[in-house]
Amino acid sequence: MAEEFLNQISAKCSVIIIGAGQAGLSIAHSLQKKGIKPLILEKNYVGFSWKEQRWDSFCLVTPNWQCTLPDYQYSGKDPNGFMDKENIVKYLKKYSEFVKADILEGIEVKHLVKKNEKYFISTNRGNFEADQVVIATGAYHVPNRHPLSERLPTNILQIDAREYKNANTLPDGPVLVVGSGQSGCQIAEDLFFEKRKVHLSVGSAPRSPRMYRGRDVVDWLDRMGYYSMPIGEHDDPKSVRNKTNHYLTGRDNGREIDLRKRAIEGMNLHGRLKEITIDNIQFSNDLSKNLDGADSVYCRIRNSIDEWISKNNIEAPKGEIYTPCWEPTEDVKGTQLECKNLAVVIWCTGYKSDFSWVDISVFDGTGIPVHERGVTQSSGLYFIGLPWLYTWGSGRFCGVKDDANFLADIISLRSNKSAAAKEMLECKALLGS
Prior knowledge:
Elements: H1 2-8, E1 12-18, H2 22-32, E2 39-42, H3 48-52, E3 68-69, E4 72-73, H4 85-99, E5 102-105, E6 109-115, E7 118-123, E8 126-135, E9 142-143, E10 157-160, E11 175-178, H5 182-193, E12 198-201, E13 211-212, E14 215-216, H6 217-223, H7 237-242, H8 259-265, E15 268-270, E16 273-276, E17 280-283, H9 287-311, H10 330-333, E18 336-338, E19 344-347, E20 351-352, E21 381-383, H11 400-432
Parallel strand pairs: 1-2, 1-8, 2-5, 8-21, 10-19, 11-12, 11-19, 12-15
Antiparallel strand pairs: 3-4, 6-7, 7-8, 9-20, 13-14, 16-17, 17-18
Helix pairs in contact: 2-4, 2-11
């Protein structure tokens, strides 16, 4: 089907969307409601990153009721549950069928350039021209491994978070997980539950409560307007975009992740990775500081909920006082590991953006797009699906619809102006003939 479409399609399109994830599909649907039929170019296939770049036990950390793609609210039997990987892929594929957009899969964009107010896209399977382009490829493209990773002995397997599937796919022996964001903590737990000896290098990632005062914290924060708050209303928008996600999990019907409890149970916690030599991996003496910092955010979220409940006279169960259940002793605060005692290192240290294929001056000098709610200074070029594009939900199932509708309005307006301008030129030509 895609091959037939590729052979029939004109190289010239009104709007081209690059990426067929939830963001690309959302903007396609919003555009089609305005009478604009875009073409989507997808490097792999719909649902690829969810299916191929998540571990087997992966599930959303936000409840299913927050899955609200444009005109496609979650309608399953478990709105308060958390979709696992398989059902996320199904949800996205069903949405793709609902949208009925023209999608070409297996099309990798190599180069995007603008000439004479037109956009030219070079791909592995031909070239395309468009009046307007929406980049919907997300922001997490290249693993951001620690620069000292090259020093590890070659007999230690090194993989990134997106390559991890399950404990059985790894060599026997102890595993070091570096990074304590959502991926790091969840992968460390997954291995730990499979009786693997796990070492976790804990950084400054914050953590979140799961249930508090009778409701999921996501429910409270949604009611408080946190997820719909524009980034410009935050005290420091730049820092908000760079913050690590709070760690918690949707596993086991949703629960908190308390690394202190895992330590009591036998998980080995270390501070931030400091040095790697031919024989040893050394960690900073900051484990206590990092755990306390995560707890501080945890308590701050609960306090904000308490204040909101009080301010709005809401009846809710009384909140309990949090007390840390474990403290690092002096012998584990600045430990080191011998490399010979490790079989695997899993890097959960985040990802970097790679927009090197975009040959248009819309970046800040560090490779980050400069935009106003997805609208760049290059007329007709847009971004969607970036973290904090406009709100917390911009890169997620819950908030991308608002950005999609907003950009569809902008794109439609520009399309109408272009059509009007073209019609005016044609009229002038006729009058002058």
